[in-house]
Design goal:
globular, mainly beta, 20 strands, 236 residues
């Protein structure tokens, strides 16, 4: 299987996961090349904005930590060192921070949002609402806001066919600053996850099963969500 594709900033290459290893292939097509191979499972490759390094998750040290590969030299650097599972979610636009969620500091496998400097250091908390799972946190292009999903178990549950109230989630917007402010973007009642910003910072794309099957939706802040794809079954 081929999963978790990531496009390089110069639009020349795609990194993807197959059989627990990370491969790359030219965007125009061609022969795939094995980039990272290990007896452990590697996942979620994400290119740095400058295209010089690749962040990814590996369970080679336990539950799952974030690593950084220098694409010119092939050298690896471990960024996180928790016992819980880290979920790599995004780079900041300037490449200075790597954003992730982690189960290490909440209860019952719930996630909190963090960021860590790309050169390493102590992770900093973005949002850690006790007894509420927060995941898929992605910084806005201006670096002043973070959109994320909250509640439900869709951060860790393997895909199921059909609706369940257990995996219902919401999208929230966190306005960062001296007095952080939370703004709810979508109501519960469906699975809503994997938010992604448009470059202008005014529109968010996300995945939801509110139409019955998983589809891509578009939400311009302050407006109403609009369905983009029209799949009637399967998983997006």
């Amino acid at each position: 299987s081929f999963a978790e594709p990531a496009i390089s900033p110069d639009r020349r290459e795609i990194a993807f996961v197959s059989s627990g290893d990370i491969w790359t292939v030219p965007l125009a097509g061609g022969e795939a090349r094995l980039l990272i191979s290990h007896p452990a499972n590697e996942s979620r490759p994400l290119y740095a904005p400058d295209g010089r390094s690749l962040a990814f998750v590996s369970d080679r040290t336990g539950g799952g930590d974030i690593y950084l590969m220098d694409l010119a030299t092939g050298s690896l650097r471990q960024l996180t060192f928790d016992d819980g599972l880290e979920r790599l979610e995004a780079w900041s636009r300037d490449g200075a921070w790597v954003h992730f969620s982690s189960t290490s500091r909440d209860i019952a496998g719930m996630n909190d949002l963090f960021r860590v400097r790309a050169e390493g250091g102590t992770p900093m908390t973005i949002s850690a609402d006790r007894y509420t799972s927060e995941f898929f946190g992605v910084p806005a292009p201006d670096g002043q806001r973070v959109v994320f999903a909250a509640r439900g178990n869709s951060a860790g549950q393997w895909w199921r066919n059909g609706h369940s109230h257990l995996d219902e989630s919401e999208l929230w917007l966190l306005h960062d600053g001296e007095k952080p402010r939370y703004e709810q973007l979508t109501n519960r009642g469906a699975k809503q996850m994997w938010p992604m910003w448009m470059p202008d910072g005014k529109t968010v794309y996300f995945v939801s099963d509110r139409s019955g099957a998983q589809n891509v939706w578009q939400l311009t802040l302050g407006g109403t969500a609009r369905q983009v794809t029209r799949f009637t079954d399967g998983r997006v």
